[in-house]
Amino acid sequence: MKRRQLLAGTLSGLAFPLLSRAAQDPIKIGTFNPITGPASVIGDPETKAVRLWVDRINNAGGIRGVPLKLYEYDTQSKTALAVSFMRRLIETDQVHIVVGGGSSGEALAAAPFAERAGVPLVAMATTSKLVRPLQKWVFKVAADEFLTVSATLEHMKKHGLTRVAMLTSNSAFGVSGREAARTLVSQYGMELVADEQYGDQDSSMVAQLNKIKTTSPDATFVYGIGAAAALVTKTHRELSVPGELYVSTGNATERFLELAGSSAEGVRQGTVPLPIRDDLPKGSELRDVMDLLDQEYSGAYKTETPGFAATGYDGIQIALTALENASDPYDRASIRDSLEKITKLQCINGNFSYSPTDHAGLGIESVYMVVVRDGKFRWDQD
Amino acid sequence: MMQLVVAGLAVGSIYGLIGLGFVIIHNVSNVVNLSQGEFVMLSGMMAASLVSSGWPWYFAILASILAVALVGAALDYLIIARRRSERIIILMLLTLAFDVILRGAALLIWDKEDHTLTPITNELLRFGEVAIPSQYLWICGVVLVAFGLLTYFYRKTRTGIAMLAVASNRRAALLCGVRVKSVIRIAFIVSASLSALGGILITPVTYISYDVGIDLAVKGFAAAIVGGLASPAGAVVGGWLFGLVETISAGYISSQYKDGIVLLVFLSILLLFPRGLFRRTWRGRV
Is A258 on the interface with B (CB under 8 A)? Predict the structure, then answer.
């Protein structure tokens, strides 16, 4: 293997780059995601989107005439498995690039191995800890909590809501959101009037919201996802807590609408634009990308396109773009360099531009403010 | 304050109901049924899916409670009755296995999403500043009625008295002609039905998903422990106690540390009153 790579290197130097090995050597892409287990709502659509696009590229003749080979593993939502699959991808499968991670915890645990082995990792996770501090081999796909929280606070400020009550889940996701919000609230010159927490399995949110009610905030900001966030929404309305209600990204789901029922009306969140696809002007670059994913995904899997398919789509697009432009798509280092040069790549999570100092790639304009009106998610353009 | 008390009592009633389930089974068989929480989950999930597939509400609820009662009977028939002679710890581990099986089955039959159910009535009652969803009152009321019926069952019916006899002294009861095996079977059915009722009551308030069983079981067990794992009244009061401590400490002390505070109260009760706050109700003749 070593020798063949050496040979390939020499050949590419001789300007016969890919011809000689196109037939036998595919470019190897690795992915590991929580396809089953509690985080499967995230990992399953992500993996399906990645698989779908690899197949699409192969059916169209591969990338630069070279077929792709996808190595995929199911972490079962277990961080320990994410680490061992990351190692297997690097050591046994010897992939050229890894697109994976699924949940923030798994991506964080696997990232040091990518960093040590020198394998480019396109991490499909939100947490800003992946890129703060910057890691040479790690790139991030989804908008992190600093972006979504900033966008949310900016929206509040624009509407004169300055006294903010925080209510956050005690999960890793909630804690990172809380940290970001505590830092940003003062930066925006706003005031944090309450800082309460809840557990995702709690049966009642009355205590926390009752306490928030006594502080009469301009807005309540809930950072958490799933049933608990819906329960908070319901209780917020029942206790008639004054002020607007904002929830964190990740709640633009049909399930949220179903569980919170009429309480969801008027709830806002800063998130990816997939749920409000119909509100975006037809013909815009972003709308086209989303329509393409929706058409392909629902065509291939005969289901509606879940929001997290967008992250899978973005991850594989970024990897493919890097492979397309790398000076040698079989060389991990040149794929990495090529990733860093990606500019203005229109994906669904936003318009990605990486640089040697920025491996997150997104700006605040990639976060869209979504509001629930008449039981539907709509784009809140105000 | 009022707001917190009502919420605490409602949630606590559910813990109490689950605690009752623990007590009923433990009294006759000495087994702590670790799959108790799954009965709550199963009935909630089943009712939610039946209603969403178009069944009338009351029908779906009856069917769910009956089905879970059967599951309770099955636990005894398939596992406990066959391994009667094993040590208690083995039986407890078997109920733990049953718990895992039920949870896995729920995941296969339904999905991993959260589901909800129409509440009994959907009004929001307002008393000045205090807003109480009517379902909270239903929960408290239904649990009290269920507790009353259970007391009546224990005091006045032959089966109930036989159950107390088995709890008090199995050998003596057997010698007196009590059919111990069927009494135990009935205890499992009653226990499962009560927990199933809890599932129906709590699903509209906190939603249900396949993995909530363990969490509810832990809180129900804590409630039962307050009564020394033997007294039904102790279980209900224990449930209220934990519901109140949980909401009031979250409301007045810190929502971040409320679980820690609940555990602290629980530990102190265990340390100060190792036999629980309530004495066995049937010391003496049955």
Answer: yes
Total residue count of chain B as it appears in this document: 286
E strand or H helix at B3, and its extent? Answer: helix B2-29
Distance CA A179, CA A197 (A): 12
Pairing status of strand A244-247 against strand A219-223: parallel
Q: Beta strand pairing status for A121-123 and A138-140?
A: parallel
| pTM of the predicted model as reported, rounded to 2 decimal places | 0.80
Q: Which of B179-193, B227-241, B271-285 has the lowest mean pLDDT?
A: B271-285
DSSP secondary structure string, A11-51? HHHTT-TTGGGTTT-PEEEEEEE--SSTTHHHHHHHHHHHH
The 3-state DSSP class for residue A189 equals coil
Write out pLDDT tens, residues B75-94.
Answer: 999 988 888 888 889 999 99
Give the burial class of B142: count Cβ atoms within 10 A of its Cβ; 0-12 exposed, 13-18 middle, 19 or more buried: middle
- A-B contacts (CB, under 8 Å): 74
Enter the DSSP assignment of B177: T
Pair of tokens at residue A22: 């196109």
Contacts of A170 in chain B (CB under 8 A): 256
Q: Can you tell me the distance from the alpha carbon of A372 to that of A376, in angstroms, rounded to the nearest whole number?
A: 5
Question: Measuring CA to CA, which residue among B206, B237, B207, B202 is closest to residue B222?
Answer: B237
The helix/strand/coil state of A121 is strand
Q: Determine contact, residues B211/B259, Cβ cutoff 8 Å.
A: no
Question: CA of A251, closest CA in chain B: separation in Å?
Answer: 13
Q: Are B200 and B43 in contact (CB under 8 A)?
A: yes
pLDDT tens for each residue of B105-120: 998 999 878 888 888 8
In this structure, what token pair is assigned to residue B32? 């702590």
Tokens, residue A317 = 């697009």
Are B39 and B21 spatial neighbours (Cβ–Cβ below 8 Å)?
yes
Structural contact between residues B93 and B33, judged by C-beta atoms closer than 8 angstroms: no
d(CA A163, CA A119): 45
Residue B243 with chain A: CB contacts under 8 Å: 204
**Residue A133: cis peptide before it, omega within 30 degrees of 0:** yes
Question: Which of A346, A43, A162 minimizes the C-alpha distance to B112?
Answer: A43
Q: Considering chain B, what percentage of its residues have pLDDT values greater than 90?
A: 45
Can you tell me the distance from the alpha carbon of A68 to that of A54, in angstroms, rounded to the nearest whole number? 7
pLDDT in tens, A148-165: 999 999 999 999 999 999
DSSP 8-state code for residue A219: E
A163-169 and A351-352 beta bridge pairing: unpaired
Query: Is residue B247 within 8 Å of B11, Cβ to Cβ?
Result: yes
Q: Which of A77, A170, A210 to probe the B interface (max B CBs under 10 A)? A: A210
d(CA A26, CA A126): 30
Which pLDDT belongs to residue B146? 93
pLDDT at B286 over 80: no
The type of residue at B137 is: L
CA distance B18 to B259: 19
Share above pLDDT 90 across residues of chain A, in percent, rounded to a whole number: 66
Question: Residue B55 region, left (φ>0) first, then alpha (ψ -120 to 50), else beta?
Answer: beta
Per-residue confidence (pLDDT) for residue B62, from 0 to 100: 95
